[in-house]
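User: Hey, quick favor. My workstation is busy. Could you predict this chain's structure for me?
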Amino acid sequence: MSFLQPWMLLALPLVMLPVIIHWMNQRRHQTKPWGAMAFLMQASQMSRGYAKLRRWLILALRVLVVAGLIFAVTRPLSSGLLGWRFGGHVDTTVVILDRSPSMQQTGKSGESKLSRAREQIANTLGMLDASHWVLIDSGTEQPSSFATLDAMVDSPLMRGSSSTAKIPKLIQTAVDYLRRNQVGDADIWICSDLRSADWDTASHHWTASREMLKQMPQSIRFHLLAYPESNASNRSVRVSEARRIKDDDGDAVLISLNLSRSAGENASDGGGHIAVPVQVEIDGVRTQFDLPLVGNQAEMRNHRIPVSPQTESGWGRLTIPADANNADNVSFFVFDAPPPRRVVLVSDDRDATKALEIAASVSPEPNVSATVEVSTSELVDTLELDAAALVLWCVELPVGDAAEKVAEYVDQGGQVIFFPPPSLLSGGGVLNEREFRGVQWGRWKGDGEKVLVENWRSDQDLLAATSSGAGLPVGQLQVHGHAEIEGDVTSLATVTGGDPLLARVMTDNGGVYFCAASPSLDRSSLADNGVVLYAIVQRAIDQGLQSLTRTRDQVAGQVDLSTETWKQLEGDSNGLSSEYASSAGVYRSGAGQGGRLIAVNRDASEDRIDTVDAAQVEALFEGVSFSRLDESVDDAGGIAREIWRLFLLGMIVAMLLEAVLCLPRRSAKVASQGGPA
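Assistant: No problem, here it is.
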C-alpha cells in the first residue's frame, strides 16, 4: 500500500483522542463509599463483565472511526507492485518499455500486451507525484524526456517495434541517465513480457548496473510490470533465404522459409498435423500454397516463384493468416541477380597454391559459375578488385599503391585472406617487415615438425559448424610448419603451442584474415583434407558477394542509419523515418532507383516463447529495491487502485456499531401487573 497524501499520516496520533476523553471523563467522578449502595453493587456484580466489555468495544470503535477518517484523506493505493511507499514525491520517473514483437501478442479482447501496458502505466503513474518523466524504449534505446505524462504516453516511441528488447542494456542506460543528471529519488518502471532473449541473464550489464546503484546516494526503486503469459495458438513465419536464378526452367526466385507454432497448440486433425496457408507476394503478384506443419516446426527449401526475365531485382513478403500475434505473421525479403563469383589469386607459385585455385573455382551452386583470376606479385599494381568476391594473397604483403588498393577494397566490404609468402617458406624471412592493418608475418616455426589444431571457433566465422549442426573436421588437420602472426588479431584456430593458425583482423567493414599454414601439399594437409579449405574459401566468397549485391538483409535494431538515407517501400506507413532501422519492412538506400534494396525483419529469437522464471528475476535485482506484479492482457483492472472509499465505509460501519452498543438496555418487566408489593 502507498499513499498519495502521505503527509496526512502525521495526524495518526489523533486516534488517541477517544481514549484521552474517556480517561478524562473517568477522572471527573470520584468514588465515595455508601453503605446503602453495597447491596446494589453486590447484586449487579454478575453483569459488570458485560458492561466492561461493552465500554471497551465502544472505545475501540471510536478509535477506528478517527483512524478511518485519517486514512481516507491520505488517499491510499492498493497494489502489490507499489509496496509501502511513504516518500510521496519522486524527482524523476523512468519508464523502460519493451516494444519487441512478442509484446504485440493480443488477448481475447483484441488488446495487445503493449497497449495494455501503456494504458496501465498511464493510469497508475497519473496518480503519483513526479516532476520529470523519461522514456527509454527498446526501439531507440535512448532516453527521451517529457514534460508531462500525457506527452510520454502519446509518443510514437510507445508503439510497437520489430527490434528485440535488450533489457540489461536499457536498465544500464537508465542508471547512467540518473547518475549523469544527478537527479534525486527516482522510480524505474519496467514493462516487459520476460522473454529470455530480451532479458539475457548472462549479460555483463546486470553486474555493472548493480555496482553503479551501490555508489549512488539517492533512493532508486525498481517496479516490474510483467506480462509472462503466452498464447498457445500463435504461429510465426520467416524467410531464411531468397535467391534469383535463371535455369532451364526459366527465371524464378527460390524462397526458403521456416514456420513454427507455440508448443501446445491443438492441430485440426488431432494428430499434430495441420496445413498452414502461406501467401507470397512479389511485385504485386500473389501466390498461395499450403505448408504441412507437423509438430511445432516446418521448413521448406527453394520454393520456386516464377518471375519475369526483366525483373532482375525486387522485393516481396511472406504472410500467414492472422492469429494471436500479427507481428510475426509477415517476413520481408529482397532478391537480386547473383553477382559473378570472381576470385583473384595472387601467387608466384601456382603449384603450391593449386588447392586454393581449385577450392575457389568449384561453385556450390550447379547453375552458377565461378572464375579465378591468377596474378603474380609483379602485377599487383594493375589488379582490378572492384568486382572481386575474394582475394587470396600468397605473396609478400602489399605496400604502396597495391596496399591502398587492397585497403579500399576491404573498406567497401571485400574479403582477403593472406597466406605465408614464398620467402617465409624458404626460411629467408619477409621483405622489410611489411604489414597490413597493423599485422605482419613473423618467423617460420617448426619446419617439418607435425603439429595439430587444438582449438577453433565453431560458433561463428569461417570455421563455424554447418546449418545442420555438424562441425568441420578442423581437428584432423596436420601442419608441417607455420608462420607466426604478429599484431592485434582474433584467433579463429590455434595449433599445438597456442600459435594462431587462422586469425581475423578487426575491421569496420569487410574481412581481413591471416592463415599461418601454407596450402602446399608438403607443408600442411589443407589440400588433402579439402573440406576445411573449401569451406573457408567458399564462406569468404559468400561474405564478399554480400558487398557486391544490390540487396541486403538486416535484423531490426542492428542497423546503423547514421551514414545512409532510406526510403520506405513497404512497412508501417505510420512509423517515423528515424525508426526505419527497427521497423520491419523494405527500404531503398541512397537516392533514385539505383540504391540498394534492404529487407528488415525481426530477430529469430523473437519466435521463442521461453521466459525467465521468478527466481532468476529476483537474483538479477539482488540488493536493489525491487517489486514485481504479474498482469494479464485480459485483466480489466488497474495495477494501482485508490481505496479511500473502503476506509470511509469502514468508518461508517464502526459508527453504526458504536451507536448500537450505546443504546440503553431494555427495562425488566414488572413481575405482576398490579405493581410492586
